[in-house]
Amino acid sequence: MEFFAQTRKPATLAEIADHFGWPRSSTFNLLATLSEKGYLYEPRPRAGFYPTPRWLAMARMISEVEPLPPWTHTLVADLSAETGETASIVAPAGVMAVFIDVVESKAAIRYFATIGHRVPIHATASGRALLLQYSQEERDSVYRKIEFKQYGPSTPISIEAVEAELRNSIERGYCQSFGDYSRDLAGAAIPLPIGDRRLSVVVAGPEFRIGPKVAEVAALIARTVDRLRPKTTAA
């Protein structure tokens, strides 16, 4: 689907096979199966394959099961507009954190993130804001699955280092990152529990721009959440 989202036009068997480096026979079998199931069609004879609206229908059915409350999109939209940076809602996915709603900065130099973007849960502000919502036993279970890598000079590369950063985050009232995972990128995040869902909200951008005001950005995030979160529901 990402391939078609990027190209925005039908693609032939050869084009798809060449793009992914797949054998022509395997590509043919895959396209034939998807076509038989109603997921692909040929808009014009021999002009290539394109997704049918069935993908959209399935996506809507999936999203309706665990929808985000409408106020959460307003949250990231307002944060991005006020800070000029990229704002996102993030959820846990094993040892990773996945972006489930994003409003990108309009600046030329910005944090490029899209829905579905994944980052290490322990090496990012957004991920650590998720870990703060875990019990110690749950965190220990996650730590056993992490392959600790030195992504940058400030990456926490041990369980002790991650736990120390979590304690620091509790003391300061927010999670922060200064090139911990992505070079020259800084961000501030806070936990965003909604019902029984563990989420976080993060604002991130170039370190030269957001770094000096991370504390201010974190305070803005907290104020905006408090302003928008419904007071009488679990949402």
TrEMBL record:
Parts forming coiled coils: none
Keyword line: DNA-binding, Transcription, Transcription regulation
Protein name: Transcriptional regulator
A Pfam match: IclR_C
GO molecular function, one term: DNA-binding transcription factor activity
Keyword DNA-binding: yes
Taxonomic source organism: Bradyrhizobium diazoefficiens
Keyword Transcription regulation: yes
All copies of domain IclR-ED, residue ranges: 54-235
Entry-linked Gene3D superfamilies: 3.30.450.40, Winged helix-like DNA-binding domain superfamily/Winged helix DNA-binding domain
Biological processes per GO annotation: negative regulation of DNA-templated transcription
InterPro entries the UniProt entry points to: GAF-like_dom_sf, HTH_MetabolicPath_Reg, Tscrpt_reg_IclR_C, Tscrpt_reg_IclR_N, WH-like_DNA-bd_sf, WH_DNA-bd_sf
